[in-house]
C-alpha cells in the first residue's frame, strides 16, 4: 500500500461510493475498507499539517446532519483546491 499512487481527489469524493469513483483505504479483515478522512485528503493534496480544516458554520441543517455536512463540504473544498506544491512551483 505504501508504494501505490493515489487517484485524484475530486470534489465529489465523499459522495462517490455509490458511483464507484471513491478510492478506499484498505484495512485488514475483519474491517471493511474506509474512505480517506478530510485530513488525509489534505495531506494527499500537499497541504501542510498546519492547514486548518475549519469548523461547521453555516445555514441551518437538520439535527444529526451537521457532521455529514461538514465532511461533504471539506471533501468539496479539497477536491476543488489547487495543490500548494503546484502553486509554489
Descriptive account of the structure:
The model has no long low-confidence stretch (mean pLDDT 75). The protein has helices at 38-45, 66-79, 84-88, and strands spanning 24-25, 34-35. With 89 residues, the chain is mainly alpha-helical. It has 3 helices and 2 strands. It is globular and about 45 Å long. Helix 1 packs parallel to helix 2. It has a two-stranded antiparallel ribbon.
Large-scale geometry: globular
- Spatially, the strands of the biggest sheet line up as 1-2
**Number of beta-strand segments:** 2
Helix fraction? 25-40%
**Radius of gyration from CA coordinates:** 14 Å
Biggest sheet overview: 2 strands, antiparallel
Order of helices and strands: EEHHH
Residues in β-strands, percent: under 5%
- N→C terminal distance: 28 Å
Q: Count of DSSP helices?
A: 3
| Poorly predicted regions | none
Structural class designation:
mainly alpha
pLDDT averaged over residues: 75
Task: Outline the fold blueprint.
Layout lengths: L23 E2 L8 E2 L2 H8 L20 H14 L4 H5 L1
Antiparallel strand pairs: 1-2
Helix pairs in contact: 1-2
Summary, kept brief:
This protein is mostly helical and 89 residues long. It has 3 helices and 2 strands. 30% of the residues lie in helices and 4% in strands.
Keywords:
single chain, 89 residues, mainly alpha, 2 strands, 30% helix
Amino acid at each position: 500500500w505504501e508504494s501505490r499512487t493515489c487517484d485524484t481527489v475530486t470534489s465529489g469524493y465523499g459522495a462517490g461510493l455509490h458511483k464507484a469513483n471513491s478510492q478506499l483505504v484498505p484495512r485488514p479483515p475483519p474491517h471493511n475498507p474506509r474512505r480517506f478522512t478530510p485530513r488525509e485528503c489534505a495531506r494527499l493534496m500537499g497541504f501542510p499539517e498546519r492547514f486548518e480544516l475549519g469548523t461547521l458554520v453555516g445555514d441551518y441543517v437538520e439535527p444529526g446532519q451537521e457532521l455529514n455536512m461538514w465532511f461533504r463540504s471539506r471533501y468539496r473544498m479539497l477536491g476543488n483546491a489547487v495543490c500548494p506544491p503546484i502553486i509554489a512551483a
